[in-house]
Amino acid sequence: MPALRNSFCTLVIAALVAGCGTRSVTPMAMTQPGDDQLDCPAIIEQIKANRPAMAAYLTKDKQVEQANVFFVLIGPTFLIDLSNEEQIKARALADRNDRLVLLGRAKGCTEP
């Protein structure tokens, strides 16, 4: 009987720890192939398209943080999301936009 209880405890602990793992995040690269061939309208369009996506990631990040606080206070803690995926993706889009702004200035584009 103790062996069965130890096996069950080990299984429960393994399930709880597996839930705490973080996801692998692949953010957008700051530079993209073909950036040098972009004209001003294409640069401005990309910057404008990145802004709502960045805002959506930041909103989702706030929701994840609120859920994490709930799970820490109330449980179950294995549902906590430690990945910071939304923060990483939002920061990557901000970095991409910074790069596009610099590229646009070098080409004489007006700022969006």
- Unreliable runs, pLDDT <50, ≥5 residues? 14-21
Helix content: 55-70%
Number of helices: 3
Count of β-strands: 0
Query: What class would the helix/strand composition place it in?
Result: mainly alpha
Which quaternary structure do these chains form?
A: single chain
Order of helices and strands: HHH
Per the principal axes of the C-alpha atoms, what is the gross shape?
A: elongated
Summed up, the domain count is: 1
Q: Which range does the strand content fall in?
A: under 5%
Task: Give the terminus-to-terminus CA distance.
Answer: 70 Å
Radius of gyration: 21 Å
Mean pLDDT: 76
Summarize the biggest pleated sheet.
Answer: none
What do these coordinates show?
This protein is mostly helical and about 110 residues long. The protein has one domain. The chain is built from 3 helices and no strands. It has helices at about 1-20, 40-75, 85-105. Helix 2 (about 40-75) packs antiparallel against helix 3 (about 85-105). The longest helix has about 35 residues, at about 40-75. It is elongated, with a radius of gyration of 21 Å. It starts with a helix and ends in a 6-residue tail after the last helix.
